[in-house]
Amino acid sequence: MMCREFSYQAPADFEPLAALLGRRRTTDADIEARVAAIMADVAARGDEALADYTRKFDCPGFSAEGLAVPASDIEAAFAALPRADLAIVEEAAANIEDFHRAQLQRSWWTAKDDGTILGQLVRPVDVAGLYVPGGQGGQTPLISSLLMNAIPAKVAGVGRIVAVSPPRADGTQSPYILAAARIAGVTEIYRAGSAWAIAALVHGTRTVPAVDVIAGPGNIYVTTAKRLAAATTGIDMLAGPSEIAILADAGANPEFIAADMLSQAEHDPLAACVLIAADPSLPGKVTAALDRQLATLERSEIARKALCDFGAIVVADTLAQGIDCVNRMAPEHLELAVADPWALLGTIRHAGAIFMGQHCPEPVGDYFAGPNHVLPTMGTARFSSALSVETFQKKSSLIATNQAYVQKHGAKIARLARLEGLEAHARSVEQRLIR
Asked: Which of 246, 260, 268, 273 has the fewest CB atoms within 10 Å around its CB?
C-alpha cells in the first residue's frame, strides 16, 4: 500500500497523523543564510545582481536590459495564442473577479449625539508585487496563480500592480503568462525569479519598483525570502506544500477519490493527500484505483513519492469522528465526498476551502469557479484565511472629538495614562481642559 493507514476514534489518535504531516515542515538555516545574502546583494547592487543571478540559474545570456518585458511582447503573446484558450482564461478571470468583488470592504463612520465621529477608512496599498513561478523552466506556466493574485489586487483598487516571473532559458516568458497578465490588467512584468525577485520587490532597483505587499506562491527560497521581507513589506502568507483531505462515506466513488488525491500529489513530492473514510471497505477500493490511475499519469513519479511519503488513509467509525480529525488537521483543501455535505458544513471549523459533494473536485476551485486558490497550509487554517481583496487593503481608524468631549472625559483619560506611568500622555489631555 502506498499510503499509510491510520484509525481515528478519539483525539489522541490524531498524533501519528500529525507527526507524519509535520515532517513536511522545512527549516534550513543554510537556506535562510543564502537567501539573506541574496537579498542583501540585490539591495546593494540592484539590477546587476538580478542579472547575475538570472544568468546563473535561468538564462545564460541574460542582461539587465532584459528585466522589463516590453508591452509589445505582451500584445504579441495575446495575439498569438488560440482564441479558444484565451476565452477560457477570460471566463475564469471574470468568475474570479465576480467572487472577489463581493469581498470589497468600504470605509464607514458613525456620528454620536455629542458630535464625536468614529470610523474606519479602507484604502488600497499603493503598489502590489506578484510572484509568478516559472515552473519547470517555463514549461508549466502557472496561469491560475497570476489570476488569483492579480485580480483581488485590481478589485482592491491598487494603483500599480507589478509581476515578477523567471525567464525561460532563451530569455522569454511563456506567452500564456503574458496573456493572462494582460487579461488580468497587469501590464508591468519583470523577468526575475526566486529570492532575488522578492528582494527586488522589497528594496526596489533602478528597473523594478519597491512594493507595499508581495503575494504569490513559490519554492522554499521564495517562501524564505518572503518571511525575511515581512518585517518591512506586507506578504500574503507563508504557504507550505499543498494538501487535501477528503472526508468520505460509504457512497463515495473510489475512482473520484483517487483522482482527487492524485490532483494534489502531482504538485510536489511534499504534497499531503489524506482520505478520511467512514467506511472500512473504502480504503482498499481507493488504493486499487490509485494504482490504476498512476499507471497513466504523466507526473506519476512525483505523485507516487508524495503518496508514499505523505499519503494517508484514516479509517473512522463515524462521520463525527472523521469531522473531528478534519478539524484537527485544518487542511488547505477539504472535499466532503458524502451523501449530504450541507448537513455537515456547520461542523467544519477549520479548512482553507471546502468543496461540497462528489461533483465538486478541488480543481474546480483551483482554476475556474472564482474563490481564491491561495490558501493556508500546514494547519494554519486554524487562524488564517485565503488570499483576498483585504490582502491588498489597509485600514485606518478615524477619531474626531471636540472640546466638550475632552472636557467630559479628559480626567478619566489622564488617570488611565498615569496608571500606566505615562505622565506626558496625561498632560496632553489636561492641557485642553477648561479649569
From this structure: 268
**Residue 409 appears among annotated catalytic residues:** no
- Cβ 391 vs Cβ 122: under 8 Å: no
Mean per-residue pLDDT over the chain, rounded: 95
Half-sphere exposure of 372 (CA within 13 A, CB side): 26
Task: Give pLDDT tens digits for 126-166.
Answer: 999 999 998 666 667 889 999 999 999 999 999 999 999 99
Say which of 100, 333, 362, 373 is annotated catalytic: 333
Three cell numbers written together for 263? 490532483
Least Cα distance to 67 among 215, 200, 180 occurs for 200
Q: List the Cα angle 144/306/2 in 5-degree steps.
A: 135
User: Please, what is the Cα angle at 49 between 46 and 52, to 5 degrees?
Assistant: 150
Q: pTM to 2 decimals? A: 0.94
Max Cα–Cα distance, the chain, nearest Å: 87
pLDDT, tens digit, for every residue of 296-337?
999 999 999 999 999 999 999 999 999 999 999 999 999 999
Q: b vs e for 99-124, b when ≥16 Cβ sit within 10 Å of the residue's Cβ?
A: bbeebeeeeeeeeeeeeeeeeeebeb
Which domains can be identified in the chain, with CATH numbers? 4-24+240-369 (3.40.50.1980), 29-108+123-235 (3.40.50.1980), 401-430 (no CATH)
What sign results for the dihedral spanned by CA atoms 203, 204, 208, 210?
positive
Pairwise CA distance, residues 205 & 209, whole Å: 6
Does the annotation count 100 as an active-site position? Answer: no
State residue 199 phi and psi, 5-degree precision.
-60, -40
Residue recorded with cell 491510520: 6
- Cβ atoms of 38 and 199 within 8 Å: the answer is yes
Choosing from 266, 332, 335, 362, the catalytic residue is 332
Cell numbers 489597509: residue:
394
Q: Please give the grid coordinates belonging to residue 10.
A: 478519539
What does 174-218 look like in DSSP terms, one character per residue?
A: -HHHHHHHHHHT--EEEE--HHHHHHHHHH--SSSPP-SEEE---
The CA distance from 213 to 129, in Å, is 6
CA atoms of 144 and 37, how far apart (whole Å): 31
Asked if residues 2 and 308 have their Cβ atoms less than 8 Å apart, the reply is yes
Residue linked to cell 543564510? 33
